[in-house]
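Q&A log
Question type: sequence-to-structure
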Amino acid sequence: MSGAKPPVEPVLHPAEVIEAALERGDVHCDEVRQSLAWLGLHDYWANFYVISEIVGMEVSLLIDADDRCYVDWGTQSRVGLNPPAGSRIPFKVWTHTHPSGNPYWSFTDQNTLAIASSARLIERALVLGNCELKQAVWSAEPADDPISSEGPLSQWTNEDLTEYPEQESPWGVEVSS
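Response status: OK
Response body:
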């Protein structure tokens, strides 16, 4: 786990700027991180996901109680929850990707949600996969259809997979993978 990260200002940069950064392998540049924050805030999940798939790395977006955005990159199969500098809990949503894969609650994801339950750190979680997303919502009471029938995961809904909504690209052109 790396050190605390400052919030990212959500700004949608031109598609050609994002594509050039991805071609350079510069996923940590402000333009990519700011665009991911913007895409996440505006529910452009297909575009958010394809950026992760292009580089073959998981990406995480945390939105805190004050709508500040925190973007982190991981590996092909894992992205940690790094401590966000200046954030305020509970986080409204934690979104992360499973590039070139299906959305599901992995063992690591389930551990993260279990820990988040004990301190009510996260209200809603999304995992994005190829063309679909999976959502879980935290509740103070046990969920009707929980991720697990026992323990802290019983407070998280285990919702069905949902296809990304049909929407035009925010750039007017598609970012290709």
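Response note: Residues 105 and 127 are 7 Å apart (CA to CA).
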